[in-house]
Amino acid sequence: MFDTVIGLEVHVQLNTKSKIFCSCSTQFESPPNTNICPVCCGYPGVLPVFNQEALRLGLRVGIALNCKINSSIYFERKNYFYPDLPKDYQISQYKSPLGYQGSLKIDAGKKIGIERIHLEEDAGKLIHKGNYSLVDFNRTGIPLLEIVSLPQLTSPKEAFDYLQSLKLILQYIGVSSCDMEKGYLRCDANISLKKKDANIFGTKVELKNMNSFKGVKAALEYEIKRQTKQLKDKKIIIQETRLWDSDKLKTIAMRSKEEAHDYRYFPEPDLPDFAVPAELIKQERESLEELPKARVERFIKQYQLSKEESSLLVENKQLADFFEKVLDFFNEPKKVYKLLFGPFLEQVKLLESGFSGIKISAKDFAKVVKYFNQKKINNRGVKKILAIAVPEKKDIDKIIKAEGLIQLSDQKGLEEIAEKILENNPKAIKEYKQGKTKAIQFLLGQVMKETRGRANPQLVRKIFERRLKE
Ligand SMILES: [Zn+2]
């Protein structure tokens, strides 16, 4: 009955060492109000100085999102009052954004237009306690890049895919960790409904306060239901900002939406116009990493992985980088992939710092994969080695020796052990002959116990199958 129209505004924190207009540190979780100075606190008479690194990182995003880049930019004051904003205005960009008319491809292959990307400074943070509030200005002046999509997303699922794709690109080009828990990536959504195939948009509602991509999806789903009911009941939709309540799973009206003219934008008189040098654009374009979508395609072609396998790898840049390094030492992509996504990731998940905490080198992991495929060690051996060598730097061969992990593949020796097990377990033989083929698993288990897990299970299974048919 209705079409959904969604546009997203994403704020991403650029990972510079200092703030956008002063030299204060951007260090996360510093004690409150320690990373502040007269500039970011808006004392009279001080002058902001533009951080060139913020420009460079913003530029990388513009290039990766296929934006046109403004060759000259300037900043404007966005005026509003809020206790976390010491200057009573935010230095932002309005009429001359860094980039415009870009695009981003989402999973289904659909291209979503990027209206604009612009640089601005963050506000401080209010900490509410009982009947009073505290303010921390550490975040004031941290560089943000706002990325505004065109209202071309037509479902919560598309919005989710857009955010996933965008986040991955931002991580790949090294401009932000996009850690949502730390607030390095924040998303607001505009949503409206219109009669099927109508040309006129409905009244839009802005949604805020979603702190995960799943939250964005859930808030949009809720809002579609709410607005549909309003429209069916012939009630009007109010243009307003609503907050997502992740406990009650509903949106709550916060305030009527401001228009741009409410902010009384005017050019920041303390900062000059800045040229965006063509040389800098060229340099950033050339140094841009391979983007995730292109990497997935390359993995499929170069390593004969399936689309799903490639996507799973590329989703985690560190893992994909590690995978390619391992291939330098053992060039069997499928075999490396299998152990990477099995026993290796199991160990990584146990590490507190995740992938950054791994101690095993690509060369050593390649060795493990090689030994496994040479049947020198079995599955259990691989698990044991990785349990030791992933969290701690250890020599693989020494572990194998110390733990006695060399797989027993000597036919005669295994036959002797199998004979002994058969002699001691007449019940299992009887069961097998009565048709309970599972008994073979029990016998195999006994051999593994006898050899402390070192027997080649495939070989032992064959020996039993042959002997029990006699
Ligand atoms: Zn400062």
Structure description:
- With 470 residues, the chain is α+β, with helices and mostly antiparallel strands.
- It folds into 3 domains: 2-284, no CATH class; 290-403, no CATH class; 411-469, Arc Repressor Mutant, subunit A.
- 40% of the residues lie in helices and 20% in strands.
- It contains 15 helices and 16 strands.
- It has helices at 52-64, 156-172, 213-232, 278-286, 292-303, 307-314, 317-327, 333-350, 362-373, 379-389, 396-403, 411-424, 426-433, 439-450, 457-469, and strands spanning 2-13, 68-69, 72-73, 76-79, 89-92, 99-105, 111-121, 125-129, 132-136, 143-149, 185-195, 205-210, 240-245, 250-256, 266-267, 274-275.
- Strands 2-6-7-10-1-11-12-13-14 form a 9-stranded mixed beta sheet, covered by helices on one side.
- Helix 14 (439-450) packs across helix 15 (457-469).
- The protein starts with a strand and ends with a helix.
List keywords for this structure.
Arc Repressor Mutant, subunit A; single chain; 470 residues; 16 strands; elongated; 3 domains; 40% helix
User: Number of DSSP strands?
Assistant: 16
Rough outline: elongated
* Strand proportion: 15-25%
Secondary-structure class: alpha+beta
Task: Enumerate the distinct ligands.
Answer: zinc ion
In total, the number of domains comes to 3
N→C terminal distance: 72 Å
Helix content: 25-40%
Major sheet: 9 strands, mixed
Number of helices: 15
Using only C-alpha atoms, the radius of gyration works out to 30 Å
| Mean pLDDT, all residues | 93
Low-confidence stretches: none
Q: Looking across the biggest beta sheet, what order are the strands in?
A: 2-6-7-10-1-11-12-13-14
